[in-house]
Amino acid sequence: MSQSKSVEIRAAAPKHCEGILKLTYAAFPFEMDTEAAAAASLKTTPLALWKDGVSKWREQRKPVAVAMDRKDRLVGTAVLRPHVGGNGRESSAVAVLARVVVDVKARKLGVGTRLTKRMLENADILGFSQVFASIPDSLSDWYSAMGWTVGEVGQGFAWLERPEPQDDWAFVQPVPPELRGTFAPLRSEPPGPPEHGYTRIAHIATSEKSEVLLDWFFDPSIDLGSERALWKYLVEDPHRFSSIPSQTFHGLYEVLAQAGLMTDVDKRLYRAISGAGS
C-alpha cells in the first residue's frame, strides 16, 4: 500500500473538530481571533460552533473533510462553504474552498490533492457550479496542475447570479411590484488581505450547466470595480443587456450614475435601452 493510500479522506465528524482547529489555526493564525470574536458575540466558543456546523453541513451546504492516517490521526482538512456577499446573502451557485491544510509530516503524499478533489465532488452534489479559492503565489502551479484557472496577482472575479426573493431587499431603492424577483445581485471575490499572503484567486467550474451568468476580472483597487467591469462588458455589445434582469440593469446604472461614473455616451445608451426618454 502506498503512503498516499494509507491516508483516508472522510467527512468530518464533531469528534474531529478539536483537531481541525488545532491544525488550521497553526496554518492560519489570523483566523483564531476572527472566530473567537464571532463566537463571543453568540455567547459560545469556536469549538462549539464548529461541532454544530459539522453536524449540519448538508443543510448549511458547508462540508468539511478530514484526512486520517493509519493510526487514526488527523493529518489534513479542507472546508467548502457558500460564497457570502456584502449583505450576508449566500451565493446559490458559487462556493469557496478554504483551509486546505496538510500536516507537515503528511505532505508530498497527494493528500491535499485528494482533499481538494473531495470538496469539488461535494460542490457538484450540493449544486455549486463554480468554486473559488484565495491562494498564495506559491500554490499557483499546484492549483493549475489540478485544472484550476489562477488569476493574476491582485485580480478578483465578479459575476451575476440568478435572483432569489431576498435579493429585492438588497436593492438601493424600493423595488416596483412588477419587477420583484428579477433583481440578480452582483457578486465579487476580491483577493485576500496581502498580510495574510493571499495574492491570487483560483477558480474552477464543477458542472457544465452553470447558474453563473457572467464572470470577468476586475481591478479591486478601482472604486465600484465590479460594477464598472459589468457595464463595460455590456456596452461592448448592447445585445448583452437582454441577458440580465431589467432591475439589475437599472440598479447598475443608478449606482454608477450616483458615483459620477457615467459618461454622456453611457447615459444616451441607458435611455435608448431602457426607454427612459431624454
Order of helices and strands: EHHHHEEEHEHEEEEEHHH
Low-confidence stretches: none
CATH H-level superfamily title of the largest domain: Gcn5-related N-acetyltransferase (GNAT)
- Tell me the major beta sheet: 7 strands, mixed
Strand order of the largest sheet: 1-2-3-4-5-9-6
Query: Helical proportion?
Result: 25-40%
Sheet-strand content, in percent, reads 15-25%
Into how many domains do the coordinates divide? 2
Q: Which structural class fits the helix and strand makeup?
A: alpha+beta
Tell me, rounded to a whole number, the average pLDDT. Answer: 89
CATH class of the largest domain: Alpha Beta
Second CATH tier, the architecture of the largest domain: 3-Layer(aba) Sandwich
